[in-house]
Fold:
Amino acid sequence: MSGNRAMLDVAQQSAAAETPVAGERRADWLRVLAKIPVYALMVLLAITTLFPFYYMLSTSLMSVNDVYTYPPHLIPPDPLWENYVRIWTTLPFARFMLNSLIHSFGVMLGRLVIVTMAGYAFARILFPGRNIVFLGFLAFMMIPDAVMLVASFVIVNSLGWVDTYLALIIPGLTYVWGIFLMRQYFMTLPISLEDAARIDGANELTIFGRIFIPLAKPAILVVLLFSFTQTWKAFLWPLIVTRSLPMRTVEVGIALLSDEYFTDFPLQMTASVLVSLPLILLFFFTQNYFMEGINLAGTNK
Amino acid sequence: MKNSIFSPLSRWGWLLLLVVAATAVALGIVVQTSRQQTLTIAEEQAQIDASLMRRWFDQERQLRTVQAAQLAAQLTPDADLASLLAAAGLDEQLSYAAWLDSDGSTRAAPQTEVVPEDVTALPIFRAISSLGAATEFFGGGSGVALLSMAAIDESRGGGVLILQFPLDEARLAAVAERPVLFLAYDTQQPLSSSSPELLTTPPQLEPVLLREVATSQQARSVIAPLGGSRAIVGLAALPDFANLGFSGYLALVEPAPAAMGLIPQWLYGTLIAASLLILLVGCLLVQRQLRGYLDDYPALSVAERRGNKLRMGGIFVLFLVPALCAGGYMLWRTGDATLHLNTRTARIANHAVTDVTERLGAQVAQFVENGSAARALQAAEGESLQERVSAYQQEIRFDFVVVAQDGEVVSSAITELSADELDALRALGAGGADPLVPGGGALLAAKQRIDEQTTVSAGYFLSGWLTPFTDGTSTEATLLHGGSIDFTTLNSVQRAALSERDQIMERAEERPGEPFRNTIGWNENTMIASAPALGGEDGPRILLSQENTAYANATTTYHAEGVAILVLLIVIAIVSLIVVFTQDQPLKLNRIVVGYLFLLPAIVWLIWWKLGPALFTIYLSLHKWSVLDPTRPFVGLHNYRLLFADERFWNAMINTVIYLIQIPIGMAISLALALVLNQKLRGIRILRTIYYIPAVTSLVVVALMWRWIYNKDFGILNYLLSFLNLGPYGWLQSVQLAMPSIMIMAIWLGLGARMLLFLAGLQSISDEYYDAASVDGATGWSRFRFITFPLLMPTTFFVLITSVIGSFQVFTPVYVLTGGGPAGSTDVAVHRIYFEAWQNLRFGYASAETVVLFVCLFALTILQFRYFGERVDYVR
Structure:
């Protein structure tokens, strides 16, 4: 809890820094006027960003006949909510969603264990070889994922994992960036914490599980969020290691079926809306953590 | 001791627990993986066995059909079937023979009296009756049999001859060394089996699997326990039963314990128990030693302390030796097993070839003796000699029939005979049956004199009846005669390699029918068997050879696991030794143990899924590798040679580099926007959220969205452009526009996220710098040039690095938007790799592409690090 509160404090401070102080709020309307072009630019940028999403949403509410007209409709002439019912029956969409959820949560939970443990070891335990091993870990970050593709598949195939959840989850379990992040976070915590616990007779596991994990909640949340979005968005690996339709994740499913239902653009857009909705909602509710992650990523390197 | 961080246990108790647990886990993994590997080997073995069995079975069927046709040709309404059968030497082999007259009555069934009703009910029975042709099929019903049918045409009284050759378990087992079951399934219901008790308790074979085996026509490994202590381990479908409404399968049967592993279960159990016991005793010993040591510790001299440590280290090493021996034993057993498999497969192949050779030889000889050709070739009205020969050839299914009448040759053949071969036939004495090996081809022929002017010869091409053994398998056949190669299915390289190895050919000639191992050629062909061929001692020899790589691969992984066990045990040893030698610094020891334990999952994972695949990629790139084909020969740098000459790959690389252009453009736009927006603005938090939305949306969705926007006829982009009197453009259909379209999408996608990164970077620059600069009179551009830009360098660098690495691996937008097209204009590196590996199944080649991609990417990363690294440091 205390971790959350610290995070909130930080957020509030930065919010306070952004709001103009009372002195400046005195009606200097000329300066406000000067900012109008800037605001216009901001809004224009927002429109550019949001327009494709709006277009996706509006297309998802059209019928096929509405879509194939020229000039194109920007507003669905007759909103067709039926598409959102049809999608669950036309495609094995529920199964796709389930697969994606299993994939994302599996990877997320696995990473939670591995990443926090490794980050903790690097930050708080002084053992010989720590720096060399850490450098080795960072070196692995330099190897891009595409390089592993073929070989990983051959390994997965020889293990007989193709078309199983194992093939989706196991190869995604470690997240070096997350280890790095956790290490940085654990390093900021005061050393007196574990000393006090140790005097009370706590062992290493207790210190880790009872003291550091609760304190590291904000960082863990960032790692979990990034893991979840990353995994949910994954495309190439699930495309390769799943074969049968009932094992496809939602991303792969809609990409493959988009060719089959090529002419049914509204249905494609309906699927797209439903696929992106979980991520966008998640983002809306946890954006502070996201921004924290971006800032950490941008400045720590 | 009070300070011990493992308070509930003593240090040594903890250590003991650790060592025992690690060993148990290691041995558990060994048992599990070696069992799996055994199954892999069993699978390949089953595939080879089953495919050889199938080929043998096909030959058998063909042969029986020929026999049935020949018999039918001799039958007349008043003939005595029993004596005819005896004359053909078939009475011993048959379990059933009947002649059904066209009126439906049955005659002359020597072994059984009743024609099974289900046979006459089969549609094929009626079809044969009307066609007058010989055919073969596998009959289900009351027993397992290989049935042959031949119709006798109307002129000879009509009717159908049915010969039933028993195909019991013993007979099948005689071919393979392992017992083979014969199963017939009517989709899910067992119809018949060579093991009758299986009909009452059918083996647990999944209908899905049966269907898959039947449709793919490939052998599969299965584990289906039968009654008692047996299990089905391999399953192969027999072809051509679909029209009968059921499927036939050959199932390889093993004793159940053997089916589960090459090394018996009890041995595993004993090994594990023994290793654990040894380790336990060792740990207890060390613990006792240590306790005494620590009690005396203050009183001991330095030399005594060192001696004590060494003694304890010695004990560790001592009790690790048995464990290492166990690992070594498994390795040794693996090699042994492989050798055994090789020779066994050789024997099966040998047996199958010999069997067929002998039968065909006997058949040719029979052709000479029984004079059936004369009757068959008797002229019917209005029929030319050519037509009669063709009809005869079809009926008896020899590869060719040649009739010579006063020097005039009329031949009917699947492949026309060459002049050389005709000469050889002429030289063959009438009434003789001989293997003829003229020129490059080879044939088994016999000649029969019909009257003073006319002779008829018939026979088989070697290539014709040897190909079933070589088609679709890694087995190759070579015909040796007099020290030279007469016919071979080897490719030119292998053939050349074989010619150079005289001793192989000599051995095959000298000791026929004996399997042996020898390697030829660049891809490790192992010669495994030579069979006696045609015409006894002096006749040509057939040499069967097999690509060894399938086995090599199976055992390589098996060996790798054996090595892994050894490595693991050595790691345990090292850990134990570290423990012993740091035991007077308990805190340090605890830190080592705890630190590495916390890192263990991450380290294991990184080695398995990062380091391992990275090295494995290089290994793969040196091999020809397909998931479907078990032979994976080492080809050296061949893939790379192909790669450097492959225009499509370089096109993809160039496209990838072109795609990188979007990075500086996108970054410049984002930076400009960030500079403008770097002010105290209301509502920036909401907008910040909005700008970041594309970054949390999946690429597939974004690409689908833009595919719709880019749509040529109904897309919004062309509609907007039409207001400017532009277009319509086929964004994704045009070679010029497709790549820029993807780039525009990428810029849009990265815009918000990059801008936010720049904003974060800008806001971390302290106002003091600007204040100081404005004192110096810097404004506008110079402020940006000398303060903002250098101080923003870490962010810029980060954005650039991640963008380049990401863009080099771009795949999803290309896959969804264009699929690499049109005309390869958007084909990027990863897409190329994907295509080669998962469409063309060229994993080795795709790995070579990956290696080249990695080298490019790595060089780029290093370059960027070097170039920017200095500046970044300078700024800090």
